[in-house]
Automatic annotation (TrEMBL):
InterPro entries: NAD(P)-bd_dom_sf, SDR_fam, SDR_member_12. It holds the Pfam family adh_short. The lineage of its organism: Eukaryota, Metazoa, Chordata, Craniata, Vertebrata. This is Dehydrogenase/reductase 12-like a. It comes from Astyanax mexicanus (Blind cave fish). CDD domains: DHRS-12_like_SDR_c-like.
C-alpha cells in the first residue's frame, strides 16, 4: 500500500504536517530561543544545496556559523553557496562534493574531514532520496537504504570522536512522518523480497533513522541526538518522487524555511538541549515516534540486532 493512502497517517498529516499547522504551532514558539550567535561553531549539513538543507544552511549562516555543505552536484552546490554568502555576508561556507550512495566514499570523506578539521559542533543529516524503482549502488546495496540509512550511520559513527571534543555537540537527523506507518525490520534491509514500493522503502529507512538516533543517544551521552519531522514540505524530492501527492497538496505544503525551522532550533537553541537526547521532534516540540495504539514499536532485542547488522555492514566498507 502506498504511503499516502494510509488513512490514519494521512488524517494526522492534514492536522499536523501542513503549512496551516506550522502557522498555528509557531504561535507558541519562544522567539528568544533563536536570538543566539553561532559564530565560532561549525555545522555539517548534508543535502545543503536545495530544500530544507539549503534553508537550514541559510538560517545558520545568518547567525555566523561556519557551514560545511555536503552535496552531490558541484554546480548546484556552488550556486547555493554563492547565494548564501551574498544573502548573509558570511564567507565561512565550504562545499564538499560527496555522493552519499557511494558507501566507501562516505567513510573516506568522514575520515579525511576528521583529520583536516579540529572541531565539528553539529552534524545535520538532511539528505535523502526516494526511489521509484529498486536500484543498487556500486557496492551492490539498494540505493535508498545506502543514502537514507547506511550513510547516516557511517557519518555519525566516524564523526563521533570529532563531535565529542567540540563544545555543545549535537546530531540532528531529518526524518519523515512516513516512518509512523513502519515498524523496524532488519530482515529485508535491501528490499530484495516482495514488490518494491519506493515510498514504503523510504518510510522504513526513516524508521531506521529514529532507531539509530535512540541507540546512538544511549551509547554517547555527551552528544545531544535528535530526530525530527519537518512536516509536508514543498521540496524537489517530493515533487519528483510523489507527483500526485505534490500536485493535490501543493497549496497546503510548507515552505522549505518552515520545514527547516525545527532543525535550526535543534541545532542552535539552548532550550533544545534541555530535552532528553534521542527523541523525536515536530514543530519545536518533543512528540511520540509512534501513532496511538500503534504496532510499530520494536523490542530492545530487535533494536540491538539492527545496530549490529549496521555495524557489520558499515565495517565491511571501511577503508583500512
Amino acid at each position: 500500500m502506498s504511503l499516502y493512502r494510509n488513512s490514519a497517517w494521512f488524517l494526522k498529516g492534514l492536522t499536523e504536517f501542513t503549512k496551516g499547522s506550522y502557522e498555528a504551532s509557531s504561535k507558541r514558539f519562544v522567539e528568544k530561543d533563536l536570538e543566539v550567535s553561532a559564530a565560532g561553531k561549525s555545522f555539517m549539513i548534508t543535502g545543503a544545496n536545495s530544500g530544507i538543507g539549503k534553508a537550514t544552511a541559510m538560517a545558520i549562516a545568518k547567525k555566523g556559523g561556519t557551514i560545511h555543505m555536503i552535496c552531490r552536484n558541484k554546480d548546484k552546490a556552488e550556486e547555493a553557496r554563492a547565494e548564501i554568502v551574498k544573502e548573509t555576508g558570511n564567507k565561512e561556507i565550504y562545499v564538499h562534493i560527496l555522493d552519499l550512495s557511494e558507501t566507501k566514499k562516505v567513510w573516506e570523506f568522514a575520515e579525511a574531514f576528521k583529520k583536516k578539521y579540529k572541531t565539528l559542533n553539529v552534524l545535520i543529516n538532511n539528505a535523502g532520496c526516494m526511489m521509484t524503482k529498486r536500484e543498487v549502488n556500486a557496492e551492490g546495496l539498494e540505493k535508498s537504504f545506502a543514502i537514507n540509512s547506511l550513510a547516516v550511520y557511517i557519518l555519525i559513527k566516524s564523526l563521533i570522536p570529532l563531535l565529542e571534543k567540540s563544545p555543545d555537540p549535537r546530531v540532528i537527523t531529518v526524518t519523515s512522518g512516513g516512518m509512523l506507518v513502519q515498524k523496524l525490520r532488519t530482515g529485508n534491509l535491501q528490499s530484495q523480497r516482495g514488490r518494491y514500493d519506493g515510498t514504503m522503502v523510504y518510510a522504513q529507512n526513516k524508521r531506521q533513522q529514529v532507531v539509530l538516533t535512540e541507540q546512538f543517544a544511549k551509547a554517547h551521552t555527551n552528544i545531544h541526538f535528535s530526530v525530527m519531522h519537518p512536516g509536508w514540505v514543498d521540496t524537489p524530492m517530493i515533487a519528483n518522487a510523489m507527483p500526485d501527492f505534490h500536485s493535490s497538496m501543493k497549496e497546503r505544503l510548507r515552505t522549505p524555511e518552515q520545514g527547516a525551522d525545527t532543525v535550526v532550533w535543534l541545532a542552535l537553541a539552548e532550550a533544545a538541549t534541555t530535552k532528553p537526547s534521542g527523541k523525536f521532534f515536530q514543530d519545536r516540540k518533543m512528540v511520540s515516534a509512534h501513532l496511538p495504539l500503534a504496532w510499530t514499536h520494536s523490542s530492545q532485542l530487535e533494536d540491538q540486532k539492527f545496530m549490529s547488522v549496521m555495524e557489520e555492514l558499515a565495517k565491511s566498507f571501511q577503508p583500512h
